[in-house]
Amino acid sequence: MNKIISAEFLAADIKRFVIEAPKIAAKRRAGQFVIVRIDEKGERIPLTIADSNKEQGTITIIVQGIGKTTKEINNHVAGDFFLDVVGPLGKPSHIENFGTAISIGGGVGTAIAFPTAVALKEAGNHTIVINGARNKDLVILEEELKNVADELYITTDDGSYGYHGFVTQKLQELIDSGRKIDFVLAIGPIPMMRAVANTTKPYGIKTVVSLNPVMVDGTGMCGGCRATVDNKTVFVCVDGPEFDAHLVDFDLLTKRNRTYNQSEKAALDNHLCKLDKAFVEAVTTES
After folding, report:
1. Secondary structure class of 78 (helix, strand, coil)
2. Is the pLDDT of residue 224 over 90?
3. 100-210 fold
4. What's the mean pLDDT in 24-52?
5. 77 and 7 in contact (C-beta within 8 Å)?
6. pLDDT at residue 112, as a whole number
7. Omega before 92 cis (within 30°)?
């Protein structure tokens, strides 16, 4: 079991956990992830390691409560325990001194973009970060990114904070300015990663995306996380999660990620119904 050292909401339904996991903290590198299970019957949830502290033996994960299990995870507080935290899994990010490197995070994908931005900076790159969110209230890790990036651009879809527009629009502006951009990493929703790939491809800019397909065991045995890259089948948990953005079949990735949409919605609806029933029973008892 892994003890939760601290837990705090960064935005609505987005929570940061610092977890006791000394062996993972000692080996973890940027781009790798863990699989978390909260109890014996719990779903296995893959989550990127946002940060770690070898001396304290802790890792940091950031969870967006979307489905039944992620919402249950976010109900946990400091002092609670997760039953399993397995990792580090996946291949580390390929880091070198590219020159000028842009790390793009969309929504909670910023939690993945952050450790890679740190690694790119440490490798000597001029590091630019584009941090995108739907609105001001959903912007996360701004202060942490300010301490890492040579340049930080916040974008919001509704213009409530920072640059009014999508991350790809800001990326296009940087390209159009005539600056030499040597490397782009994009992490976030599939449509955003596809849009980044389409933006950089005409310019031949090396671009990498971190894929997020449905994943079960994290060891390549189940085959659930398969994707198609360069017309070949890959297993994201062991062959990735990062791949050449210009070679990813985003259409197939999107279809596979929708496979369990109805099941996930039914599980969440059932969970919320049980919570409503428990609340009514509690109020009735108190009355």
Report:
1. coil
2. no
3. Rossmann fold (3.40.50)
4. 90
5. yes
6. 81
7. no
Q: Cβ(119)–Cβ(95) under 8 Å?
A: yes
Q: Is the per-residue pLDDT at 86 higher than 50?
A: yes
Choices 1.10.1040.10, 2.10.260.10, 3.30.410.40, 2.40.30.10: CATH for 2-89: 2.40.30.10
Residue 172 to residues 59, 117, 130, 145, 169, Cα–Cα distance (Å): 34, 19, 12, 21, 5
Q: What is the separation of C-alpha 121 from the centre of its chain, rounded to a whole number of angstroms?
A: 19
The H-or-E segment that residue 170 falls in is helix 167-176
Torsion sign across C-alpha atoms 1, 261, 16, 100: positive
SS3 (DSSP) at 268: helix
Q: Which residues of 159-187 are buried (b: 16+ CB within 10 A; e: fewer)?
A: eebbbebbbbebbeebbeeeeebebbbbb
pLDDT score of 88: 93
What's the confidence (pLDDT) of residue 216? 77
CB 47 within 8 A of CB 115: no
Query: Across the chain, where does the E strand assignment appear?
Result: 2-11, 14-20, 33-37, 45-48, 51-53, 58-64, 81-82, 84-89, 100-106, 126-133, 151-156, 163-164, 183-187, 206-210, 226-229, 232-235, 242-244
Angstrom distance (rounded) from CA 94 to CA 30: 9
Share of the chain above pLDDT 90, in %: 65
Question: What pLDDT shows up at residue 264?
Answer: 54
User: Please, what is the Cα angle at 122 between 121 and 128, to 5 degrees?
Assistant: 0
pLDDT for 282: 56
Query: At a CB cut-off of 8 Å and minimum separation 6, what does 251 contact?
Result: none
Does this model's pTM top 0.85? no
What does the domain layout of the chain look like in residue ranges? 2-89, 100-210
User: Taking Cα atoms as reference points, which of 44, 92, 63 lies closest to residue 4?
Assistant: 63
Environment class of residue 213 by beta-carbon count within 10 Å: exposed (0-12), middle (13-18) or buried (19+)?
Answer: buried
